[in-house]
Amino acid sequence: MKSLWFKISILAMVSFLVTNCSSTKVLPTTTTLTKAAIAEDEEIYIPQLKSNRKIFFPETVAETHWVDSIYKQLSFEEKVGQLFMIAAYSNRDATHETDIDKLITENKIGGLIFFQGGPFRQAKLTNHFQSKSKIPLFIGIDAEWGLSMRLDSTFRYPFNMTLGAIRDLKLIEKVGVSMAKESKRMGVHFNFAPVLDINTNPKNPIIGYRSFGENKVNVTEHAIALMNGVQGQGLFSTGKHFPGHGDTATDSHTSLPTVNASLDHLQKVELYPYKRMFDEGLVSVMVAHLNVPSLEPREGYPTSISYNVVTNILKNELGFDGLIFTDALNMKGASNFRKPGDIDLEAFLAGNDILLFAENVPLAYEKICMAYQDSLISETRLAESVKKILHYKFKAGLNKYKSVEPINLYHDINPNSNEQLQYELYENAVTVVKNADAILPIKDLNQKIAYLKLGDDTNNTFVNTLKKYTEVTEISDANVDSLLIKLKSFNTVIIGYHKSDKSWWKVPVFTDIELQIIDKVGKQNNVILDCFAKPYVLSQIQNFDAIKGLIVSYQNQDIAQLVSAELLFGAIESKGKLPVSINDIFKVGDGLTTAKLNRLGFSIPENVGMNSEKLKQIETIAQKTIDGKMAPGMQILVARKGKVIYQKSFGKQTYEGNVKVKNTDLFDVASLTKIVATLPNVMQIYDQKKVALETLLGDMLPIFKGSNKQQMTFKELLSHYGRMQAWIPFYKTTLDSAKKPMDKYYKKVFTQGFTKRVSDSLFLRDDYHDTIMKKIINSPLIDKKEYRYSDFTFIILKQYLQKITGKKLEDLAADNFFKTLGMNNTLYNPLKRFDKSVIAPTEIDNYFRHTTVQGYVHDMEAAMEDGVGGHAGIFSNTMDVAKMMQMYLQKGNYGGQQYFSEATFNDFNTCWFCAEGNRRGLGFDKPQLSGGGPTCGCVSMDSFGHTGFTGTMAWADPKTEIIYIFLSNRTFPDSNLPNMLSKENIREDIQKVIQDAIIDK
């Protein structure tokens, strides 16, 4: 230590003499900082021998030969020119382009650092500028969270602080790989990242989000992983901002920040990442403009021009022999200290290789030339930097320069794999910090849940995703007291704090009213606070007692909102850990693991082994369906491995109308009712041993005793193997000769004895159900014992369920399944809860009800049962039906609840009569055994589902873990027209596309 201090003192004196004791000084802004819980006795890293360091870009004979050859050809002017990297913008005018052309041709500059603009414009300029340069230029860019830090129309990765919450370092390396590929495609050679600053000051105005956090080990490990990804692709990483900008309270763009840490602290903490990174093969470093008294005794002397810092410490003590960049020399932390030209000379004398963002290159060249002539700069010193630059130009492939190809550029820098990775990143980053009473994940969906927005940024994705799990009511009121009254009846309140991160340097702040709301609502309700902002904002909350659940989602990005909503309802588990402290309450590394409840989540196709480009063919088939007037509108959903990966709506509710179909609209699902409402309740009865496969129908329902159906077994009934007729048009006997409802059976208004509503102005007499059952009981059997699909099966099962439970079917379905599954858009008689405008019409009926059927079940028998049939009557959307199908796919388990046993599901998904040519399971339809059938013929025989008359289909395949839901109103306007949807195999063709999209077979 004494030796180091001696060196610093001597070098300070030498540097003072060399720089002619300039009298112009900028006094730094000095702030005494409180350290964030970093013990001085933390891990001390002992660097390896330089010979043992990892080398990403080993020197070759060809490289050495090329460097020596080029260097010998360079004039003095060309050698000095190599030291400069100039700022370039692709969003400026022709004058800017001309100015840079001049710097390239006249001053022979060595590189460009690109700032704001767009990818195509930058690629064009890169090619243009490279064509002007004798020696190909270095191209650099600040791409800390990808090219989008500087360029529009490019992909934005999470900020480093978000990445710092992730424990899986392989994901961080993946980020580096992706960033590198995109930068290389743009003709870039240096990504000025990763940021190695340890953000120990929560009020740091310029680092903040850019840091991986406040713990040196966490920061270093993430930086190494990112660097490995970047440099593994042949792109150069630049660690910054040496010797450490994390413990500052001012911005070096506007003034000279001071770091008042001791030398011992710097060695243990701020320099720790650099020591490890050098051993791991980091090739370049950027030196910051900082005032660090423990490293540079001269008052207010920037580290970027300090010989002590750059040469003695960075090069000699730490043994770094890679490229050394100054931070931008136009920043006030440097430019306020020396004028243009002088600051460049000082920086080079200090030991930097590349002078970044020089403001006046001709003047800087003149100053360096004079210093060379005065022997302040030796040929050896100049050669050291210039040859080092040439070595890295060779390593970058600039000895065989290739221009940037504009064709497919946008696609290449925005691949589908980026979004795939983005989901993984946020799934691993979102952090649960508090979980009192295990409020997370939300298990009980049969409770009143409200959502309250704080902050001023968008929240659409978050709210829409929450509503896909259960009914969530949005509440707002500017008056706190009024807000509390509105929230009084709710069990749980989800508070989302949404702040934009587009202006990444801004620190979000809770308003006084927002803090008051959090406190008061928390004292009244069970509150879950989800913070879509920098975790530092939570430091404004002094007491978290009123908050039961606390989630840090870090950024207000759409995928962050979606993933956070998934976590709230248990579709994913919590994995993230805090990268920074929140007051003295929550520490670095805090993060709770929450349970996964086997609920459907959301992702993109590639994350579950499917091809999104292939799935786009669904849109072509959907449009063909609409153009061919096979259905006016439809909803289509695909899920795999528990993730919804495709959910879209097409067309309109009617051919002539203007109301577009939305994902939340309701469709009459027709016979899907059988497996959505009736069958799951039957499976529970079976699971409870109240009925068995061989139980006779006469024993199940005594009204069938003495009939030709009394010996039919439960297994035969559910397999459509009991010789029953397909159906009976019960409604026809209630019509007169003009096909109008007879007064004997109907009234136009609700009347005692006539309460079964068939349509808006048509009510059937209450006792007609008995007539229907008698007709079924007395109906003849078909002659041959063979598979015959019959609606009678589920009409009978409705009667059986209501008899054995003493409850109505609509109540059984809602209480036993819909409410707990979160199927809040699934019900009989939807007009009791929903406006007609969100329900697709099924027909303009001119043969029974003589009205447009909208919000009333299309099936005539179900309509005559007050809209509730065992075989028809349910209205739903694809998301809700998918929940039921996922529960089946998980063999009775969903949301942490076991609805029936795995054995029961297996029994019902068994084809008991396949040997006899009957493909059916118990209640479920199954793939065709041969010839035509309900599927594409490309799904497994373990798959199951059902189709419906209105143009619907729900199918699940345990082998591929795929769920496919298709809902349409193909019967509109006339159900008696040929079923072209079926004849053209629309549903089956879409299923074939889905199967073909599997890429992990």
Layout of helices and strands:
Layout lengths: L1 H17 L42 H13 L2 H6 L2 E5 L5 H14 L3 E4 L4 H14 L5 E4 L18 H4 L5 H17 L4 E2 L24 H16 L4 E7 L20 H8 L1 H9 L3 E4 L19 H11 L5 E4 L5 H4 L6 H9 L4 E2 L4 H13 L5 H17 L13 H5 L2 H14 L1 E5 L13 E7 L4 H10 L2 E4 L4 H8 L4 E7 L13 H13 L1 E7 L16 E4 L5 H11 L32 E2 L9 H4 L1 H11 L5 E8 L2 E9 L15 E2 L4 H15 L9 H4 L13 H5 L27 E2 L8 E4 L2 E3 L3 H11 L13 H14 L3 H13 L5 E2 L14 E3 L5 E3 L6 H4 L10 E3 L1 H12 L3 E2 L2 E2 L3 H7 L35 E5 L3 E6 L4 E7 L11 H4 L2 H11 L5
Parallel strand pairs: 1-2, 1-8, 2-3, 3-4, 4-5, 5-6, 6-7, 10-11, 10-12, 12-13, 13-14, 15-17
Antiparallel strand pairs: 9-14, 16-17, 16-30, 18-25, 19-21, 20-21, 22-25, 23-24, 26-27, 28-29, 29-30
Task: Walk me through the structure.
By secondary structure, this protein is an alpha/beta fold. It is 35% helix and 13% strand. The protein is built from 34 helices and 30 strands. The chain has an eight-stranded parallel β-sheet. A six-stranded mixed β-sheet has the order 9-14-13-12-10-11, sandwiched between helices. A hairpin with a 3-residue loop joins strand 28 (944-948) and strand 29. The longest helix is centred in the N-terminal third of the chain and has 17 residues, at 2-18. The radius of gyration is 36 Å and the shape is elongated. The two termini are 62 Å apart. Mean pLDDT is 94; it is low at 1-41.
Keywords, please?
1001 residues; alpha/beta; eight-stranded parallel β-sheet; six-stranded mixed β-sheet; 35% helix; disordered N terminus
Short description:
With 1001 residues, the chain is of the alpha/beta class. The chain is 35% helix and 13% strand. An 8-stranded parallel sheet has the order 7-6-5-4-3-2-1-8. The protein has a 6-stranded mixed sheet with strand order 9-14-13-12-10-11, sandwiched between helices.
